[in-house]
What we know:
This protein has helices at 4-16, 19-25, 30-44, 60-83, 99-102, 106-116, 129-137, 182-186, 198-206, 223-231, 245-249, 278-301; strands spanning 49-50, 57-58, 91-97, 120-126, 143-147, 155-163, 165-169, 190-192, 217-219, 236-240, 254-255, 265-272. It is α/β, with parallel strands linked by helices. The strands form 3 sheets. The chain has a 5-stranded mixed sheet, with helices on both faces. It has a 5-stranded mixed sheet with strand order 9-8-10-7-11, with helices on both faces. Strands 1-2 form a two-stranded antiparallel ribbon.
Amino acid sequence: MLDFRSIETFLWVVKLGSFRGAAARLNTTQPAISQRIAQLEREMGVKLLNRDHRIASPTPSGRQMMVYAEKLIGLRAAMMAEIGNASAMRGVMRLGVAETIVHTWLPRLVKSVNEIYPNLSLEIEVDITPNLTARLLAQEIELAFVVGPLSAPGVHNRVLADYAIGFLASPSLGLGHGPVTRQDLARFPIITFPRKTRPYEAVREVFDRPELPPIRLHASASLATVIHMAVEGLGIAVIPAAIVENELADGRLQLLDTDLNITPLTFTASWLASPDVVAVERVADLARQIAQKSLAVDAEITPRH
């Protein structure tokens, strides 16, 4: 009798083009993947995969099999979502997260996942949006919380929250007692997100003016480093104010009063279309709820200029 494990294994070997990729996706070993495929081919009585040049591709029978495999896995996922207990949601979900999320509501999401889906484990990777996007498209992660929406084919996006970008500085710089102009800001080093990211380019454009001196723009992939540098008075941080809630509350940083506007960062939960995405969609929905609640709380406590 055919079992869903073998069918699911076949589906991911075809989608990822390799036994190694399927093993990583299903959190098992390559020999186990080979054994499942061999069992499936014996039971079907036909060859389903070509294994030439280390790339696994479906045979004509395999392409037919793929149509039914996607339907079966999709139906199983829908059945479990509608009828099964939340504890039936099991396995490992590889999650890519932009660092802004780490500094805001990610711990609350992890706690909620642990409580609601006790048999679902998260493998979390923190990186910048371009790198996480590449990993998502390569199917090395199942879900990404990134600056979006992503427009690649087959990607689904769910908006999580918009984060306003603020100009933040230590009181030692003496900029927190009135309106601050572009010229005032340009006198100091500007510290922000890493190169090749949307916010970095947006910040660079703000100060790309002929009347201003060349800007000293420090970029870092570590927001913890950006925050620490700003607290130490080494420059002005241009980052979402929501991630420095504690520093604003205890006076280590001030939100500067300036009429310069940078487009808020829209974060999305993004994932690739797949027959078995129920768990991904459930976690994306949970993330949106937590992100929206977090944003509402931050709006209430963020100090005014």
